[in-house]
Input
Amino acid sequence: MTENTTSFAYTVAAFASEGEEKESVAVYGILATSPHMAVEAVRQMMPRDVHVELAGTLSRKVARALRLKQGEARRL
Output
């Protein structure tokens, strides 16, 4: 029996914190099976002091054009 592994294209933002203000460091596109998995994949790439959060989604057309691969975060 195979499990459903449908992936979606997410955007994940990484922020550097300066006191109470956040400054965007980068936005990443990633194919993942859930928003949580997308955020965790990017979080593992970042230093501990960088805050990471889900920013949105990408269309299938854009994800194909960017040639995103499952679990591979690409800086946009």
